[in-house]
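Please describe what follows:
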Amino acid sequence: MTPVHFSFCSAFILGLMGLTFHRTHLLSALLCLEGMMLSLFIALALWTLQFEMTGFSAAPMLLLAFSACEASAGLALLVATARTHGTDRLQNLNLLQC
């Protein structure tokens, strides 16, 4: 395993562990998701450059577009929950209540 491969795998796993263990606020969960998507984007971009795959070069941009859509949807949910519940703590959000 190369050091570059190890650093991107460890960045993804750290984001996943942060999402799993530190789910107190919605904003911290969204930041962990963004870190995971950023590590996937950089790894996918370096993979296409390393193997010189010109047909696969649009995949990192597609992943970046999906990541931007995910970030905007997450921020919209953050604003909506902060307005309705007064906080972004995930423990106060009950999905069974309307």
